[in-house]
């Protein structure tokens, strides 16, 4: 039986919870800072900054993350409320805040692609399970609204500040024995579990 080929990274996609419960679509609407100059794509990791507003996570191998964006809502230039796959850059204003839909459950599990760098696909063996991995923050697509975030094995290890923990491999898209292009992960440095706060 032929399995689908993963040809490019796609961000983090929700699968279920670490306790095995299915992902039921629960999200939190978090406002985006006025005139935030970066687009927020479906599958991007995001954080709450010191002003209490949402920003795209700039974390690759350290720092806290509040969750994963799965769409958003904003008011366009015609005054219409739009619900979209992503939030365009600089769409949030002081009079019409944009809101990101965020999976912020610290126990949520996500599927993510492995890259060597940028958007160049790579793979991992089962030995990566239990390790911490850095993110690769590729730019998303304004055509599809999808993220291109991924993880890399570069720097993988036990360091507590690395943001992603590998829970398992995804056998459905393995390209050979013990060669997995996708991993099942959770956020290792979740903001809700950070006892020092923002």
Describe it.
The structure is a single chain. The protein has 198 residues and is an all-beta fold. It has two domains: 13-20 and 106-193, no CATH class; 28-103, no CATH class. It is built from no helices and 13 strands. It has strands spanning 13-17, 28-31, 45-48, 54-56, 67-75, 81-84, 99-103, 108-117, 120-121, 132-136, 150-157, 164-169, 182-187. The strands form two sheets. Strands 2, 3, 4, 5, 6 and 7 form a six-stranded antiparallel beta sheet that branches. A five-stranded mixed beta barrel has the order 8-11-10-12-13. A hairpin with a 5-residue loop joins strand 3 (45-48) and strand 4 (54-56). The N and C termini lie far apart (48 Å).
Put the structure in a nutshell.
This protein is mainly β and 198 residues long. 0% of the residues lie in helices and 36% in strands.
Number of β-strand runs: 13
Average residue-wise pLDDT:
94
**Principal-axes shape call:** globular
Q: Unreliable segments (pLDDT under 50, ≥5 consecutive)?
A: none
SSE pattern, N- to C-terminal: EEEEEEEEEEEEE
Return the structural class.
mainly beta
Summed up, the helix count is 0
Rounded to an integer, what's the Rg over CA atoms?
A: 17 Å
Number of domains: 2
Distance between termini?
48 Å
């Amino acid at each position: 039986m032929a399995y689908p080929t993963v040809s490019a990274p796609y961000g983090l996609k929700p699968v279920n919870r670490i306790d095995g419960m299915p992902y039921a679509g629960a999200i939190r609407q978090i406002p985006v800072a006025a005139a935030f100059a970066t687009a927020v794509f479906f599958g991007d990791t995001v954080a709450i900054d010191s002003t209490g507003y949402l920003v795209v996570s700039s974390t690759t191998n350290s720092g806290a993350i509040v969750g994963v964006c799965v769409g958003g809502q904003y008011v366009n230039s015609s005054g219409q409320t739009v619900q979209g796959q992503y939030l365009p850059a600089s769409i949030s204003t002081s009079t019409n805040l944009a809101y990101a839909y965020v999976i912020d459950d610290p126990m949520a599990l996500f599927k993510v692609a492995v890259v060597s760098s940028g958007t160049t696909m790579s793979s991992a063996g089962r030995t990566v399970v239990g390790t911490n991995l850095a993110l690769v923050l590729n730019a998303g697509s304004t055509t599809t609204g999808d993220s291109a975030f991924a993880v890399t094995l570069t720097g993988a290890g036990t360091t507590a500040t690395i943001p992603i923990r590998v829970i398992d491999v995804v056998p459905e898209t393995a390209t050979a024995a013990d060669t997995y292009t996708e991993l099942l992960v959770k956020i290792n440095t979740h903001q809700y579990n950070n006892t020092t706060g923002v």
